[in-house]
Amino acid sequence: MQVKKNRVFLGAAAAWLAMVSGGVSQTPGKSDPSFPQPSRAPGVDYVLPTESEIKATLDRIRDHFVRSTPYRIIDTQTGAAITDLSKPTKTAGLDLRAGQFNDWDYPMGVVLAAMLHVSDVTGDASYRAYTFKNFDFIFDHVDYFRKQSELYGAQSYGLRRLLEFRELDDCGAIGAALIKANRQKPDARYRATIDRIANHISHKNFRLPDGTLGRPRPQPVSLWADDLYMSVPFLAQMGVESGDRAYFDDAARQVIQMSARLQDPATGLWDHSWFENTVPDPKFYWGRASGWSIMAAAELLSVMPEDHPERARVLEIFRRGAQGAAATQGGMGLWHQLLDKNDSYLETSASAMFTFAIARGVNRGWLSPAYAPVAQAGWQALATRVRPDGQIEGICVSTTAAYDAVYYYNRPTELGAMQGYGPVLMAGAEVIEMLRSFDVQRALNTFHYRTRKQ
User: Fold this and answer.
1) CA distances from 199 to 165, 223, 250, 274 (A)
2) Residues 358-401 pLDDT 10s
3) 185, 64, 59: which is closest to 118 by C-alpha?
């Protein structure tokens, strides 16, 4: 990776020297040297990726997960493996020392759904196999941890989020992945949990009087843009699974009513949170908040009936979000941690979410093919953040709804922050679909996507 970065930097420097000395030399694929200023983003490969290149990057991520996931129950105090599962102990838990890989939580839900998507697009069954293996491990051991919970209370390392749904983070995103997995490999244990999740989201989770899904934190009545992805994909998949249009109605209501409070009507960007007791409400356009929101709308539009009365409104919200994303993409192909603050760092998870959503919009005809180069450049930039070992750089860690920009500026990134891995897998798969669907012509250093004739 360091060799590649050095080569890119040296190539950009050579192009700049050629310009200032009157030459017109250009490193292939880099910014047009006829511009009066040297590129401020010398690391972008402004070239068309190939399907094999994208697949190789996705394979590195898959291999990282396969290599890193421990399917073990351990004593969480000593680290010793527990092989006798006849009687649970209080300190027993999943082996999460290396990360969340086989835990029941929302970032892994996005990963598991993304693995299914990559298999669907590429035909490589190994991605799907990872999802099935993880879900089977969880459900093979849930009864053990249920007994532990009965004896000692639900433990954080003992599938607490599966045993006790307290908020949307505990069930929505991973529940959507579970529906998709159950559709391909039906399992009665999956089905029972899907029904529990549906009951929680529809009837038990905190809501505002108008039915908008919210949280009683950090303020007594709060909305988080994140919760669109923690609910809408599940509701949309339940609409498909059950045939009950009420799920589509609820999913559309969440997108529309969250948009009314959180989406800027002029820019299309999404504020991270809204507090009922705060007037005027401060606005912080955190990248991942907009990313969750536009991905949620894309997931809904992907399965929503064409004749649904609210489809046009959801589509308009999606398009406004895509327009805002395109306008705020940085010169390196990535998006900033705070979308309207160009001095905030370039962040990976939001960049992957925008890349996926825009590519999906182009592929499904919700957006003009003129948006395709945005997703193309986004993918090329994301690929540079996938290390040779499959870990991904530049992902912001978990982030609460905050009250000042300084908080967002200073949220660190970590290789183990799982929130970006699923979106990068989804982005790569969707860009592969985009490359298959269009003929791409390059003229004057610009890419033109033309609908491929059947």
Assistant:
1) 10, 20, 13, 25
2) 999 999 999 999 999 999 999 999 999 999 999 999 999 999 99
3) 59
